[in-house]
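Input (structure):
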């Protein structure tokens, strides 16, 4: 009986996570500036926060996607003028990616567009509940990363 209760708890947890993830992604995608996808915003936000060049392989690893998927996203961002991609002079087989000034502006516009929704959700849930949930979600993410 204990195994069945644990299984039910696990199923309920992941069902809630999957549903919340899908609903949040749908809402955020509709709020982003025209032509920007959630994956584009995520990469721009990452590059803007860390302010250092990254290889496509490093970005793929950070986002837990294939190199091909990251290359596709980076190509779209480069065409839009949001990132600069240059050869790595120390390793001719690799490239380095940085966010461009236009990319910073696009990221800032996207962040401005989605901030009201995120702020409203946190306010509706209550800061104390969100603060209490963060360590659990972080532990879950770290556990998945170590097994990934």
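Output (sequence):
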């Amino acid at each position: 009986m204990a195994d069945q209760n644990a299984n039910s708890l696990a199923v309920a947890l992941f069902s809630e996570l999957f549903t919340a993830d899908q609903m949040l992604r749908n809402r955020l995608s509709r709020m982003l500036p025209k032509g920007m996808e959630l994956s584009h915003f995520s990469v721009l936000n990452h590059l803007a926060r860390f302010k250092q060049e990254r290889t496509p392989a490093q970005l793929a690893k950070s986002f837990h996607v294939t190199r091909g998927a990251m290359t596709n996203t980076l190509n779209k961002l480069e065409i839009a003028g949001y990132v600069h991609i240059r050869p790595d002079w120390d390793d001719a087989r690799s490239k380095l990616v940085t966010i461009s000034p236009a990319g910073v502006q696009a990221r800032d516009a996207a962040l401005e567009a989605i901030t009201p929704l995120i702020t409203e959700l946190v306010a509706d849930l209550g800061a104390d509940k969100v603060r209490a949930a963060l360590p659990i979600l972080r532990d879950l993410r770290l556990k998945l990363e170590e097994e990934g």
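Notes: Helices lie at 2-31, 38-50, 56-63, 67-79, 101-125, 127-147. The domain at 32-147 is CATH 1.10.10.10 (Arc Repressor Mutant, subunit A).
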